[in-house]
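Example 3.2
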Amino acid sequence: MVWTRAWRRWQRWACIGAAMVVGAWLLLAAPCALLACPPQDSEEVPSATTDKSNEHDDAARLLCTAFSFVPTSQQHELRTSPQLGEKSPYSVAYDWVAAARSFTANESVTYTTHTTPEMISHVGALAARWTGPLSVALFVPYSDFCLAAARVAFLRVCGPPDVKERVSWHLFWPRDTPPAADWHLVVDENTIDCDTDKTSSVRGFRTTEGLPYPVNVARNVARSAAPTWYVLPSDVELYPSQGLVEQFLGLIQRINSGKERRVAEASPRVFVVPVFEVAAVVPFSKEELVQQYQQNDAVYFHRHVCAHCQRFPALSDWIRQPGTPGILKAFSVVKRQFPYHRWEPIYICTKAEPLYDERLTWEGLQDKMTQMHELCLREYSMVILDTAFLVHAPGIKRRNKNKAKDDVWRDPFVAKNAKIYDEIMEEMQKKFGPSEKCRRH
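Structure, written as tokens:
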């Protein structure tokens, strides 16, 4: 009897011990198997991820296991970035989450933009104003994937219906810092609670680690994935004027029918959309914008921090001429030449225009200058639109007296971009020859 009771006690403790082992595995190993240890594609190099600190690893596990994930409805294959191709240090997953509605090539204009997890909410405001498709490139190194996945799901469920209807999301990341979770998965939207944002206090991995933002990879990915022939490559905080898509398509119809001869003869060409900043209220029409401009509640973009960047030829005349409401026309046709050789316009173009150079980063500045220089060398015309515009999210930027000190962190990136910029300029001179009209910045 004594031996039997001892045997039964041993069995109970053995069962409890086994249950604890299984429970620990379910808590730690299972989430790793499902999420925190992504399948390594042949082109991925995991060493940089596995070398991260335990702090980041724990944060990634916590974030990645805080949500219910399900497989996407799309079949995905990893691609390289559009310009660098096989030499690219980045992996791209196109249409990670696709829009519900599809568009034909000539049906509309795609707003192509890019973001990190911190700025995803702006996509909702864009989708509410833009009536065409939107193509968004998301930079998701390591645990930023989980943060982005959660915020995309939240926006699709709790934001404007236009987000789910017309926004397609594409992922990209450094090959040596792949997502901390299986990127084939998405957050189960049925589990989203619109009253609770679980990610509101989470700081992104890129921000914490100081990773450079490959802005031109992002621009090229979003543009390449657009379903339409015409695209507006822009920034996620720039909101378009009302009716821009329909009005632009009307302009294209008039050009094709021979009613806009001045524009038709300007080939190759892009269509410049002037950019402004406002103090508080984002206008819908040019009339509203001009009223704010005259009251000093609006200025052209970067007026106080980079006066030459967005100041376009005959700006004062553009403000004075109201145009025809509902009908988009060419205000002027100009070249990007001296004294506007440092101008960085945002424009509607086709998917055939030169790509942005992916070797340049956002932190290093001058990331669009080489592409604009190439357009000049290729003798592109800039068709400035008369009533269309973009407006940055409210708040007029002003130069800070301590800006030089605050931007010291940027110095290594600026030096690297400057060196790459010089290399690109030399490559272009060899390709196109010297040009007196197209001056270097």
